Amino acid sequence: MPPARHRHNHNSLQIPCGKPGCQRWFKSKAGRTRHHHSAHPDLPPSVRHNRGTPQPDPPPPRTPTPVPSANEAELQNLSPPPHSRAPSRSLSPEGRVEFHGHGDRLYRNYHPKLDGRACNELGEFLAPGMPPPLYTERPFRDWAPYRDRVEFELAEFLFKRNQMSASQIDTLLDLWAATLLGHGKQPPFANHHDLYKVIDSTPLGSVPWKSFSVTYNGEKPDHNVPPWMNDSFEVWYRDPHEVIKNMLGNADYKDEMDYAPFHEFSSEGDEQRWQDFMSGSWAWSQADEIAKDPDTHGATFVPIVLGSDKTTVSVGTGNNEYYPLYISLGNVRNNVRRAHRDAVSITAFLAIPKTTKEHANDSSFRKFRRQLFHSSLAKILGTFKPWMTKPEIVQFGDSYHRRVIYGLGPYIADYEEQVLLSCIVRGWCAKCLSPRNELDINSLCRCKEHTETLLEQATLQELWSEYGIVGDLVPFTNDFPRADIHELLSPDILHQLIKGTFKDHLVDWVERYLKHVHSAAEASRILDDIDRRIATVAPCAGLRRFPQGRGFKQWTGDDSKALMKVYLPAIEGYVPTDVVQAFRAFLDFCYLVRRDVITEHILIQIQDALERFHHHRTIFNTLGIVLTFSLPRQHSMVHYLFLIRLFGAPNGLCSSITEAKHIKAVKEPWRRSSRFKALGQMLLTNQRLDKLSAARADFRRRRMLDGTCLSEANVLDNLPDGQNEDVRDEVQLEDNNEDIEVDNGPTSVLAHVELAKTPQYKRARTVNELAVELLIPQLPVLLGHFLFAQLHPDDERDPDEIPPNMLPHFNGRIWVFNSASSRFFAPSDLSGIKGMRREHIRACPRWRNDFPRYDCIFTNTNPELDGMAGMTIARVICFFSFKYDYTLYPCAIVRWFDTVGDAPDEDTGMWMVRPAFHANHTPNIAVIHIDAIYRAAHLIPIYGRHPVPLDIKYYHSYDTFRAFYVNKYADHHAFEIAF
């Protein structure tokens, strides 16, 4: 007899979350309650920790931060004193004081001339407070070109989310049609052709792809003409002007966009802060230049952010290289540009000239290939040129019109791309004039005017050998006003620091050092032990493991980022102290420049880390490991202070953004193609993806996507028969507007920990049973100490001094949990759009049915002190909860660690801890409230000089070693709190 079958519950997903800005719906009230506890904790002030991003004490009276090149003089022209450009710190375009952040009072000076004022369709400025015009006259339930919501969400699911092939779409629709046979109904689409036709007919987001061909028109030899001189090279693109206008009009960005350049200051000491792009000096100086024309006053400056990089989609078949060009806005904030919210769009596929091996190294071919790149960019971006000096009226996502002035902004590129963009010789710096064999000496910045002067007075050979300039190339920026390619090259954390300086330089130098001072056999043994050290690192939330050490052949950016977090303690003991300190200084530099907000005090720390790195790295030269430090990617570190002041925090302009875009815009469309003439299919796929994104933004703007498909269908299905569409629309509007608010900023809760939702019913159910299970016979007494502290919070006596007869006794039911979750504010890490991050802390005897896992934690012991001075490390043995006098107590049994010394280790910069013991040599164990937990901590063993035994596994780490480093490099948030 076949098993009983369940019918689909049409009433599922009917309960909305109800919290401001949350669009989640649930099948039951219990599900909604669990969601509220997890995502929207309603916390009393007593559990709101204040350790999110500690602000150091204000520095002494400000002095100009030294930069190891002549950049400071240039900086003074771009970054004026705080009060020299605006009449008052607290004035915005509307004359209001800006408040935002987690309790921080911040002031902004907005540009007094290009202040982004709203206007009407004719360009006439509106009075402050006037409402915007109606966005659209389309009816509320107009789903065109789709029939209804089901069609749209099905099309989006099949094409964008699931990426289902055409044949599989046909199969699914045939099965769907079979279930409806005899009911007089049809599936939403007839077949994949019908689906694609409907998507293509979407009027929004329609920026068609176009192409142009380029051929060589120079002199050709009389005989043996190279094939590339007769070939035609095709460039596919779509109008970037229209792409940018679509971004400006996207309602999703209306609360995540800056309409005017500004300078931001803290409330104490007028300390300047840099975060998003428009807070930098470059946008302000550009606005100064534009404002020289009175007709531009009141306009919105829109910087065009570009990025390009070749990418490989396949190793073994066909034409496996593509050359995408990406475009974005400088006005959207860094968190939006990093969050894959369509703020970075592909706008062109550039040509990649190929030729025979015989002519590949020919100078004329190399010149043609490079000039083709610049000429293509100049033509593609030419549609912006009329509106770089004359304002264009554009409607923005907040429904207001504004007068827009465009300008070429920063260019995201790795070093090879920077060489091509700046028309310099490989091995030279694209930002300054330092000689290629002495890159770190002080020198002037490159600039357009200086290059043009040299072109007039020097020969091509002199330009090449003495200045590193390829004089017979014309950069694309020469065709645009106010554009200097040397100034526009942005910092690139991924390729310059992580993959360049760390992976290609420092890690390689350590291996070369070991082979230099040891025999080949001994060096191999040491490298094997370093790999074992890396492999035995204990697991932690968000930390990647290396089961075989660093012995993998193909490195990715993620590999390098993960190895940076655990590499320093692994080499200690095998390399000189200066090498360890060089790694520490470099890691400090990386983590400081990666911060979401950078202040003047942090700039001083960055400069100090850079100087320490330059000092300690000389050990590699002294030992003969490295002959020169004139390495362009490593040299780029000296320009970071200048570029931070210029463009804001570097994490908003890193090439990791375009690398991630490669997957969605190039690699996935290529995999969906037939591989035959794949580019045309990839263009069509990208166009359809843009149309679906634009349609979703429009439907969301008109509040047509609130709730779920099923919840909306139930609302309409339950209306009385005979009601017309207008009444049905009114019912839907009224239902969706209930308890809806806009969440305009991050939550004020900086850290909150709560237990898992499901207890472990097969574990102990009383305190005595738990004491036997955990082999902690004194657990009932420890619980008594905990209850006494909870019931008498003002009693400052040591727990051991309290008489046993005064301790509360509990022998009721307990609930044991295997994990807890911590939510905290960590905008510098990969986190939500509001900067919140969630991680799980594990305490379970069999993690994934394999091995025990008991994580370590930061606990708040003195909230008045910052960093490790106010925190203690502990290891969680068990999570449990119980009720006492009708009060629920969520708790953790922890084993304390003692801090070694009163300062971090001088070499590694990390605090050292060791397991704590009582005077009778028993482990120091306690019961604490989970409100005392801040977040997970990661400890790395202090390995010393002894090899790691072969039988030690990573889950033995905390039980085997006697002393540990508190790994402040586990993530950027840990770096900010574990100082």
From TrEMBL:
Protein source organism: Paxillus involutus ATCC 200175
Designated name of the protein: C2H2-type domain-containing protein
Region annotated Disordered, chain positions: 1-99
InterPro entries per record: Plavaka, Znf_C2H2_type
Biased composition, class Basic residues, residue ranges: 1-10, 26-38
UniProt superkingdom: Eukaryota
Biased composition range(s): Pro residues: 55-67
The organism's taxonomic lineage, starting at the top: Eukaryota, Fungi, Dikarya, Basidiomycota, Agaricomycotina
C2H2-type domain boundaries: 17-40
